Amino acid sequence: MFSLILPTYNERENLSVYLPKLEEFFKKQKIDYEIIVVDDDSPDKTWEFVQKYSHSHSNVKVIRRVKEKGLSSAVIAGMASARGDFLGVMDADMQHDESIIPEMLSELKDKEIVIGSRRVGEGSYGEMKWHRRILSYGATLLAKILLPIASTDPMSGFFIIRRQVFEESKDALNPLGFKILLEFLAKNPKSKVTEVGYRFKKREFGETKLTGAVMQQYIFALIDLRFGKFISLQFLKYALTGISGIFVNLSGQWLAANYLNSFQFNWVGKDILVPSFAVAFGFELSVLSNYVINNFWTFSDKAKKRIPSFLFGFLKFNIVSLLGFLIQYSTWLFLFQTIHTFYPEFMPDTLTYVANLIGILVATATNYQLNRSITWG
Questions:
Q1: What is 179-222 written as a DSSP string?
Q2: 60-64 and 33-39: which strand pairing?
Q3: How far does Cα 95 stand from its chain's mean position?
Q4: 6 forms bridges with which residues in the sheet?
Q5: Cβ atoms 286, 246 nearer than 8 A
Q6: Which fold, 2-227?
Q7: pTM, whole model, 2 decimals?
Q8: pLDDT tens figures, 43-102
Q9: 272 three-state secondary structure
Q10: Domain residue spans in the chain?
Q11: Partners of 116 in the β-ladder
């Protein structure tokens, strides 16, 4: 049996045309099939339409996902519930050419992954707009640089795999973003892969799902596939957030110092109080900035959105940040004194920065583990 998974979000108009067309085609080609629509609780009630449609079409079923979101995870959910020996994926917007499916299934006799490609044989990008072509070319080039991918079109959302490929790699899949094909190719490097060319069609109804957020997810998915075994994607996001916090910290310090110095008063201890307050203000501003970014980006799956939990989380993040500062300072002091004692030839001016850098790295790793288990535990 051939199981076709259609991940959807606001595709009611397209499916009202596409489902009857697909069923008619499969019956004409005498393909034993099932169609599984996996809908992310679309506002246009795509799931409701498919539910009603399936009452009189037993080969069609729908999975409505209320909590989970995302194309890749939708595909995995569809494959997990599929009954077929061959698992196919297509977009529901009618831009993929279903007429090549028989050829793709034929190729699976001695292959394990067959990709519908816009870059082989008779394949083309059709009427795709120029800026989307550039994005596709760029994304493909990036994938080829970072990963040993055996495909001319790893960005394709149109492919068929043997069930065995899914079963052997399902536990290792990371359903981040929208390019699940990359996951299967990267997690199954020894699989026999081939491609069948097709002409990319124009979308009839609805709008493209390609957004800035989707492109960001794609880049991070690539990084995770390439370097995930060495460093987690979540920690990378946490570290990048920390780097942005350095600039926020220094900017806050500069603003506070200049604002306070603008007052023409002869304060007692002004030379000490102003810089001290400016440093404290910059530190706290960076803590707030880091907390907000980490909450809605690094730990987005556990984001604290209600005001009480958000404020309580900020308090815990502050405590962990102060602890991190103590760890950084202690590491710096220990390394500086130890190395300077046993290796006095090291220049103190250089040594202090090296020791502090190591302290920052130790504090960052410690803070990450503490925040993951305490702040967003």
A1: -HHHHHHHH-TTS-EEEEE-BPPPP-SS-----HHHHHHHHHHH
A2: parallel
A3: 24
A4: 37
A5: yes
A6: Spore Coat Polysaccharide Biosynthesis Protein SpsA; Chain A (3.90.550)
A7: 0.67
A8: 999 999 999 999 999 999 999 999 888 888 899 999 999 999 999 999 888 888 999 999
A9: helix
A10: 2-227, 233-375
A11: 196
